[in-house]
Amino acid sequence: MTPAVAKLIDVAEPLRVSVLLPLPLSSFYDYALPEGFAAPPGSFVEVPLGGRQAIGVVWDREPDSNLHPARLKAVRAVLPAPPMPAALRRFIEWVAAYTLSPAGAVLRMAMSAPAALETPALRAGWRATGQANARLTPERAKVLAALADGAAHAAENLAASSAVLRGMARAGLIEPAALPPAPRFQRPDPDHPGPTLSTSQQSVTQQLHETMTNCQFAVTLLRGVTGSGKTEVYLDAVADCLRQGRQALVLLPEIALSSQWLDRFAARFGTAPALWHSELSPATRRDTWRAVAQGAAPVLVGARSALFLPFPDLGLVVVDEEHESAFKQEDGVVYHARDMAVVRARMSNVPCVLVSATPSLETLANVEAGRYRALDLPTRHGGASLPEVALLDLRRDPPERGRFLAPPLITAIRETLARGEQAMLFLNRRGYAPLTLCRGCGHRMQCPNCTAWLVEHRAQRRLQCHHCGHAEPTPPKCPQCGAEHSLVPIGPGVERVQEEAALLFPEARRLVMASDTIPGPAAAAEAARRIEEREVDLVIGTQIVAKGWHFPGLTLVGVVDADIGLSGGDLRASERTVQLLHQVAGRAGRAEAPGRVLLQTWSPEHPVMQALAANDLDGFVAAEKAARAPDHWPPYGRLAALIISSEDAVAASRAARDLGLRAPDVAGVTVLGPAPAPMSMLRGRHRHRLLLKAERGIAVQPLLREWLARVSLPNDVRLRVDVDPVSFL
Ligand code: ADP
Ligand code: ZN
Prior knowledge:
The protein has about 725 residues and is of the alpha/beta class. Helix content is about 30%, strand content about 25%.
């Protein structure tokens, strides 16, 4: 009982509790707690709210004693779910304060399986009464034999019709009985035989083991080249966590692409982990949430939203591929799951492990400042060597007109296929062509809702916007000048590269892997199986082929357009390109046969290309730091973006100007903008941006709060606050 509640007992008033509701509100609501109700902090309660019922969480804060008792509504019910752990409540408060979001909006992410809070439906079965009866039909005898252990069994396991069972009940032979809840998750066995670790893996494992034994908050960066066995090493820390009887949380950037990871987990621990991602069925979601809350899910592997699950006894948080921008959530509460994972671990006072072959500059800066410790795995496992990366200068060796593969790459693919090995072509662009242009009048096919070109998807004969989902049939003639047969595709997408590959390598068995051809986890697992079992010779894919896969037969990777991510002037364009291309390159030569990577580029002298060719990631990081640090760009300073949008163009620009006029004027802080966003229209809304940049020692949240309090925005204008922005569109 909180002190506030105790105090209120003395004055013989109804007990009051402060409740947070999962609504986009920052305020708490007070309710009276009827006599006989116990609702310690964290309890899920049903309360009246404006004529309906809502479910909220009792918060450990002083109720508002000024509210007249007569105006106080009463808690209707305390739900039979385990109370939300204090560490999660502190985490919700922290995320709300850091991201400038209403606490209720963050709570909503922690209550994303409302069905889990209801009383679990009792599953009914049958049990023997023990009143044996001499004359039993064979059917009845079989049922009694199945029930001989005295426990309740489900009807479907008794191999008798329901008429027979009802008849036996009437005869007093059996009676209905509640079944125990089905165990959903088997305990992964930490002592299940795993691989024998190499000496360098052992030494890193030993250091992680000491961290696990210490059992308190500490952040470790596990850095290792692609194929060095990082996964095996952190699974060992998961094993330590299991031996302590605590729960481990592992975040993966794309859980739908993680079939190979799940196979390895099962091989290491003898059973599958619990999963958490947006595609779970409602029933699995409910059961998983409940299992986590009851401590019955020892290891949970999930997407970023798994941070908000109610672990009662968290022992370890792992973030694999910590540099991935997929960890940034851009809608609703805007947060970076890698950074919040560190906070989550701190709130529970447990170790956190960040894993990457190409760590983010943010994490490296924390290592340099001594806040995080780094452990390195410098070589590939099992004697495999890192692939040799070569630049293919498109100015010297251009592809044929209208083609996208340069002659040296074509030769390399031929040779690879002739040796019976597999090759991969990587192009980070879905569809057939990113632009459709009229040869007659120069008209470009553009999205009606966004500042974006429509991407041709030839197989479906459609043009699609990759930002808002708008799609239209490919027009037979130019909508501008009416000329027929004048629309031409400009530039390649994976479908077009596949078309070229079909002409060049007609014998090769090809597979296109893009998010629209591989729609879900099952399709991704099937594609991976076909590649592993050598049913495919040539893989053509977007960034979904870059992630974590281990294909032992793959020895050549060709990057069709290595320059693609460098345009646009984004703060992290170079960093992201290095990370992505290094990751793709890391798919080559993971077994005995050596790997080779060819990067097609128009600017081989670019520092990014040079760093990749020389495999000099440290040199690249040093150069990035030298470029960012003097002007306090992250991670050597802080950024927050304000994105103003409205369906009304004038309202949007006026609101942006008002915000700009009231911008903070503080030493060490610069406000850039307002300016129309690079994507000045998105989903039919006009957009403007402001960017606040502060020296590292300055907390931006109080500045932002004061700033926003000085401005009142009209209803038709929306403001999104993005602390530590990743996207600048
Ligand atoms: P990374 O995550 O660093 O890219 P992985 O953990 O995926 O590396 O390991 C690469 C491959 O090597 C995987 O197939 C993994 O099973 C295998 N491997 C790593 N360490 C060992 C080991 N000690 N014994 C056997 N196989 C290993
Ligand atoms: Zn669009």
